[in-house]
Structure prediction request, 403 residues.
Amino acid sequence: MERIAVVGMGSRFFTLFAKRLKNNYPDRAKVVGVCDTNRVRCEYYRDTIDADVAIFDNFDKMLDELKPDSVIVATPDCYHHEYIIKALKKGYPVYSEKPMTTTEESCLAIRKAEKETGKSVTVTFNCRFMPYYARIKELLMNGAVGRVLSIHYEYQLDTKHGGDYFKRWHRSIETSGGMMVHKATHHFDIVNWLLDDEPERVSAQGRRLYYGNDDRPHGERCSTCQYAKTCHSYEAHHEKTGTQNLFFKAEHVDGYVRDHCVFKPDTNIYDTMSVSVGYKKGTLLTYTLDMYSPREGYNMTIYGTEGRIEASTFFGDKDTYKIILTKHTGEVQEIIFPAAAGTHAGGDDRMLEMFFGGVKDDPLGQCSDSFDGAKSAMIGIAANRSIKEGVAVDLTPILDKMR
Prediction:
């Protein structure tokens, strides 16, 4: 039985870990303690999921008293490194939410702590476990398109999902690293993993073109907004049981607002981003992220010496994922995936099965370590620097320090 201590009782812990650990792995994993600066969130977990759990507001005290087998870190991104390093130094391996961290310095510090303690960090890159990404990985490993030359990856979030980042703590680049780190870390990791390669050089552009626009009619927050009926990003989070209990009923403790207006001008993250990444083996990645599309989905095209792979889906379009393999010989293979059951296209359940279900084999290399976390985060960190300074960033010397 793996005894787990958790720090950070926000929505990601609840949607990914909470019920699954309790219901799916009763003989393999148990949350023995939870810690958060806001006790109300801890009490919600205790009252609705596990009455036996111990509640703490001090992380060190939790570890010293409970002496768990491992730690889950699910705090806001900018604090990940603090808790990861503390856990490692006290002798505990860590499961870290993505992104692993938000700065070059904290990436280095985590890698240093791992080497000094001999304890490991596993990053929860659930996209690796989505069946359609796994199928692309298999195709590339089997040489379906030969040597990969370039990847064009376009990701679009709609005004509900994309807008939601401008309502939460993610709206501050200091807290989340912006969408180049917080959101795109998924996508950069997927490309790193598909290529089995390291990013070498990054250049980027980013702007805020849709959200944070004070000229648009807006209120202070969704729950009190007079423009709710005409706003494409409006959601009644205050009427949903989960967010009510986690955030609205906890607001009096720390003043955290879950439903800021997306058009308030005090946000400082981008909503329109374009990145170019050069890889060590020669592949070029062109990546775009837009957060205000009328519909949500992605297109990925992988060009190789022997053909190309086109992978795409737009959520709601019959809920299917399509992969088209076209060879230079003219052969065309179409692979259709129905939507997998479970959150994140089935990736969450498959990932936790690998972590806690006793799975021994990992033929696709889906489990990710701290160097994977650093490679992914550093593309986003470098992209932010490139946007700010107008320079291309050489990642090779930075990643070399992290080996």
